[in-house]
Amino acid sequence: MINLEKLHFSYSKKKPLFSDLDLELKPGKVYGLLGKNGTGKSSLLKLIVGAIFAKRGQVTVDGVDSSKRDPSILNNLFFLSENYETPAVKIKDYIAANGPLYPKFDESKFYSFLEIFEIDQQANLEHLSYGQRKKVIISFAVATNVKYLLLDEPTNGLDIPSKSQFRKALLSGFHDDQIVIISTHQIRDLNQLIESIIIIEEGKILFHKDVFELEEKLLFSKSLSEDGEAEVMYSEMVPGGYIHIQSNPKGEPSEVELEVLFNAIVQNKTNFDQIFKD
């Protein structure tokens, strides 16, 4: 489990990035970490892994303070940053050097992911494109089988087929005691992958709900008109018409459109407060 309690962090004395932020993440879920540019999504991931430190409050992973960088936690945690560097070595040498750092690393799974991504197993990382190198690192990340997998903008730099391959690789590697956190702007790429969404705004958790609860309480519909058949909480133009969000008192099935929901929550969260009131 990951716990953030009364977290306060800032890069500047003038304005805190996070102030008294509380968050609890439980195993068995893929979390989508969403927010506008500059809201601190990447910083939050770095705080969890102990790459940067809170000014006040605490971040614990399995009850251990992440700032202590305890080896028992680090070898069960993998963080793929948006900006990363790879050494100029062959893939097999990269695996030989880094695989042993993770007790549950599965080399056969790693190479199966390379097949999914259509990457030459004998290649030198130096000679691969940015997108290809990212596929190698994503393959390695999933094959570590760590309990805590944190991915910062993993689909940036991937073409459309590769994004589909990424979803396939992540789903095939997911296990029930795992926590996966994906920070992303590419919400549509991960719409069917994310099980729980966390929206950050102005240093706070603005919204945190599981997708099954969204399916239960909200109805997403499409029409040619901006006006829905019933009272519309939010409407957004899309190619071919509009997507509407309405309350769902009858529990009608619909597919949650996370990007549309994100825009709706950021613009006016109070529209949804009563529906999700405990």
What does this structure look like?
The longest helix has 14 residues, at 130-143. Strands 6-7-8-3-9-10 form a 6-stranded mixed sheet, sandwiched between helices. A 4-stranded antiparallel sheet has the order 2-1-4-5, with no helix packed on it. The chain has a 3-stranded antiparallel sheet with strand order 11-13-12. The mean pLDDT is 89. It has helices at 41-49, 71-74, 91-98, 107-116, 130-143, 160-173, 211-217, 258-267, 270-273; strands spanning 2-9, 18-25, 29-35, 56-61, 64-65, 77-80, 148-152, 179-183, 196-201, 204-210, 218-223, 234-238, 241-247. It has 278 residues and is α/β, with parallel strands linked by helices. It has 2 domains: 2-202, Rossmann fold (3-Layer(aba) Sandwich), CATH 3.40.50; 211-273, no CATH class.
Strand and helix layout:
Layout: E1 2-9, E2 18-25, E3 29-35, H1 41-49, E4 56-61, E5 64-65, H2 71-74, E6 77-80, H3 91-98, H4 107-116, H5 130-143, E7 148-152, H6 160-173, E8 179-183, E9 196-201, E10 204-210, H7 211-217, E11 218-223, E12 234-238, E13 241-247, H8 258-267, H9 270-273
Parallel strand pairs: 3-8, 3-9, 6-7, 7-8
Antiparallel strand pairs: 1-2, 1-4, 4-5, 9-10, 11-13, 12-13
Helix pairs in contact: 4-5, 5-6
